[in-house]
Fold this protein.
Amino acid sequence: MAWFDRLRQGLSKTRDVLTTDIRDLGKSWEMAWDDLEFALIGADVGAKIAAEVVAETQKERERGTSFLGSLEQALLDQLEPDRMRQKLRRVGFELDVTRNMVEVNSKVVMVVGVNGVGKTTTIAKLGQYYTGYGKKVMFAAGDTFRAAATAQLELWGERLNIPTISGPDGGDPGAVAFDAAQARKARGHDLLFVDTAGRLHTKHNLMEELKKVKRVIGKADEGEPKEIWLVLDAVTGQNGLEQARKFHEAVGLTGVIVTKLDGTAKGGILLPIVRELGLPIKFIGVGESAEDLQPYDAAAYVKALLDLPQAA
Ligand SMILES: Nc1nc2c(ncn2[C@@H]2O[C@H](COP(=O)(O)OP(=O)(O)O)[C@@H](O)[C@H]2O)c(=O)[nH]1
Ligand SMILES: [Mg+2]
């Protein structure tokens, strides 16, 4: 299946770190467990979670499960805490994430994250994704602090035929978000994605600015935005976790999108995102084209990571 192949391909760098040594089990078991722990740390899951995964893998292996099968279970336990619900959802759709639209319990989705992580291109891809499910989408070009950021989103909007609300460069991002939230209501569109700045000019404080944008959206459309998604560049590894904590404290995140998994061996960063931040991962980016923004599915992710075949 095309999307699963793209996922496998996109995760190849992390997979190399994770499986080069552990597949070579001619060594003593003692060695293999150490190798596994190092490999996991190398993939940036963090020392504590790496030790947990090894212990869980050992336990499962003692029950008679194969080594890779045990590791798969141990990783899945970390990545999908609410497994029962996921299992139910998957009945009849075994591992075909493309058939299930990722639900958004919000009319307005604010997208935040530091400069260069992929916010604007991710918004464009999300626009394409939800348009494909028949949703009427709008964009707000809320990164008024970066020259050409508005033009970048407007261009995407034109290409995708998605209306884009923007203001002048250097203008007030709150004003853009307010206008856009009102426009969405007036036009009755299903979803508005609000792009935001990732860095400001020196005298401004990014987190205060984002809080203001959030408040202002609520003034234009009461109760919104119900969803605030953080875009995180996987290449930043453990540092990304620190970023996530700061954004979470400031605006209260409801989900994470991890981009650029194709460019890094640090794909293990998904484990601490789920475990330590307790935030759901909504989508993952495994390449630069629109199809490379994929709905996140823990089971598929682990299978792709360990090079296990997709379930029949
Ligand atoms: N390889 C790869 N590149 C990506 C991915 N997502 C975004 N990018 C690239 O990251 C760069 C920065 O993206 P941009 O949306 O401008 O970041 P922003 O500053 O957060 O808005 C662009 O060149 C994107 O094409 C991904 O999943 N994989
Ligand atoms: Mg941008």
Remarks:
- The chain is about 50% helix and 10% strand.
- The pocket of magnesium ion (ligand 2) is lined by residues 119-120, 143, 149 (CB under 6 Å).
